[in-house]
Amino acid sequence: MDKDLQLTGEHFILVLNSGSSSLKFAVYHQATGHRQWSGVIKGIGRPMGTMDLTDSHGDSTALKKEYYRNIEDAAVAIIRWLKENKKHCLISAIGYRLVQGGAAHRRPEIITEKLLEDLKELIFLAPNHLPDELRLINTFLMEFSALKHVACFDTNFHRDMPDQNKYYALPVEYKDQGLMRYGFHGLSYEYIMQKLNHHLASIDKKKIIIAHLGNGSSMAAVALGKGFDTTMGVSPMGGMVMATRCGDLDPGALLFILKQNDITPEELDVELSKESGLKAIAGTGDMEEILNSLRNNKKAEAALTLYCHQAKKFIGSLAASLGGLDMLIFTGGIGQNSPEVRERICTGMDFMGVKIDHCLNQDARKIISHRNSRVNIWVMATNEEYVIAMHTKDFLLHDERNKSSSVLYDAKT
């Protein structure tokens, strides 16, 4: 069966997208870009995790419960599933989402020993992400050493931001060390811009803010079709208040914590990234739990109020950076699925032409702006895995073109 599939060109690209306690994966048809399977393993490191699979028709299989101690256990579970379904999923390449690659690694690239060594040196930039991402890569490299492995960086979308939006007002030696505002969620922003280009003409003339709202939340300002400004900085902890991340802080607050408490920088990192944000205010970072407990929970109301108020402030700031605003896009788990959050953010922003339509917003339609709104407000699903698959496919096509050119050259000689 495998031989027949190889002859008919039925090959697929595996995409891996790891989070703090979850691992998303998808299998895309190499030729058509059609998603064959998608899945997610949740609860990694918790007493009981789950693996959920969805086929190309959108039908989910039964949840499989298992104890996943770490990212390697989750990776092994996916490898086991791939082997069991080998006749349906002949993998020709694997694409990975990486949060951070430093100043030297932003565009998608083939994973080599040199890249892995470079990324090890950059763990300090993303200590809550890169270690697990590297473990994931190494697990699949050991199992699929003959395949092409491609790294896709979340920072790529923001690489062309102008200097005033990229660099901090710090001594030049820090800039030389790679300290800058990298920005994140770039694969999500890239997907949204691809979809907008498909649906609208002259999108490169629009001034756009994309709000990627989820457990990790950020916004990006887009001008001339490119990333112009963003809320996150050198790490995914900056910018907006998030589920368990603090967002922007006065540097004096960090000095205060370090001076007044017996705490190491590593312990502070954990506190700012895993014990802060909505969790610090409401006792939970889960937005669904917060929304469901608003009536009788003042802490939940305080957390939601802060989250939406900060989002409102960042929209105003990014609009000023752009010099105007034509479109506001909501995406991400919260941005796409929470009418309450969208309405709270947009309410009171009539002064800058942002006016939401209550009924359209409740119906979760794509366009939710009021007929009198000068700014178009959209709700869009994002798909980081698709972007990774397409970048990975580009490397495969490049190899095929080179092989074809080589054959032609040999024929002439």
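(the above was protein one; protein two follows)
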Amino acid sequence: MTTPTTSFPSSKSTERVTTVVITHDGRERLARTVPQHAAPLIVVDNASTDGSADLVRTIAPHAQVIELADDVGAVARNIGAQAAETPYVAFAADDSWWAPCSLDLAADVLDTHPEIGVIAARVLVGVDAHLDPFCEAVGRSPLPRFPDVPGTSVLDFRAGAVVVRRSALLDVGGFDAVLELGGEEERVALDMADSGRRLCYLHDVVARHDPASRECAGGALTRRLARNEVLTAVMRRPVRVALRRAWWHVRQGSGSALGVLDAVLRLPRAMARRRTVGSDTETQARILDLVSERGLPGLEHRARQA
């Protein structure tokens, strides 16, 4: 089936969208991707020791570089968003960048639809530009479509390939220090939806991703994703959901089970931030849970894709 295109008037994104890149020891990756970014650009350096910040200043003198004394994980995105002076923020990883015209389109959509808080992009991976499997899943999202909102309704996104309404992100507290990195997007998505904002996946807004080997890969990534799935449920979902997620991960093997143990160690911090979402948002989340549990085509949990 052909995916319909979204057409909006063309405009300049430079006065409306700031690209925020977070990095930790990403010098080699930044050397490839920073030249692909247009101004305004903010790079938030999570306590790198490889000269990442100096490199960015050399190859992109127009960029604002924020160096942090400690690695704060996803919270670095909040710092970048706070420093931005545009109404919209496009997040990127140090190994991703935005395709031409994509930020123009995203800005036009956000201008036209003030109810939208998040635009999740289509992610093309590697030199062959194959579709990220996560995008295949969100593209089949079973959530109800809203006729006045473009794209596909979603309740998740890739933090390295998303355009957000800056005020909406900051209103929900941004990304959470409890989760750091790895599946940290779900809590933001739940809070955005609960605040009345729409989240949509737009096929024509495109991010490119050129992944390289990372320290957090394989079992370490599975462990972190399991931890954060459980912690997110503790912070925003009914207790039964958190328990069901924990039990599912325990049964998946040592990596996921260790993630549940990590979640237990962070439980007091998560409980201090607990605020269950409203019935409408919980209904949407439950629809996605049921799709995943029954193995139907649709959105699956991140840890099950790792």
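Reviewer note on protein two: The mean pLDDT is 89.
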